[in-house]
Prior knowledge:
This protein is 27% helix and 26% strand. It is an alpha+beta fold. The protein has one domain. Strands 3, 4, 5, 6, 8 and 9 form a 6-stranded antiparallel β-sheet that branches. It is elongated, with a radius of gyration of 27 Å.
Amino acid sequence: MGEKKLQGFTIIEVMLFLAITGLIMAVFLTGIGTSLNRERYRDATGSFHDYIQGQYNLVANVNNYRNPEEVCTSTGIVIDPSAVATAGRGTSDCTIVGRILHSSNDGQLVESSQVYATSDDFSGDTDEQVLTAANLVSSPNADEYRVEWGVRLVQPTPNNAIPNNFSILIVRMPNSGVLRTFTSQTADLEPAEMITQSIPAEGFKICVDPDGLVSAASNPVGISIARNTSNSAGVTFVSEGDC
């Protein structure tokens, strides 16, 4: 009987198999990474949209977060430890009328503070005059919101490379209860400075820069606050190509 020859793979065949397998795995893992990053970008944008809408809910459904050591005066909030003994939590010399938001210089952080009316004189023929008479001030304590996944808030096209440093005032009119929104492309404005600002006719857009999460060729998406909006429904998504 003749000897049987064992059949096997040559070194070249093994190397080719490993190379092709490695290439397929690399493509597969790259696709997974791209999908994950796109999902993270959508999560970051959706979370920011929900956050801005939530600010309207905080204005419409007031909760007093003021520490009893914070005393409201016509010139602002001052810290007075002795006030703890004379004023219980929730007691206030002024009226909570809204919130003011400020973005950080790098576009990755937003701070939100309560806004108070320090005067009960709500006279005036226009909303701006009423708010001026109310003498608005903001709390020195702010809640912080950091944009998820390391992305940042930027200006609309063609300034997508520039962080969006903004101020947003959401206020409940003390005489009518209607919500008004004032926006500015300038950060760190005081409430009294904001009431002269108005939302552009096309809305106030804040875009979310993907910062490498998706292809550089992709245009950012974001949110828009509609002009004359009086509730959270006025905060809508801005699709790719419109931001």
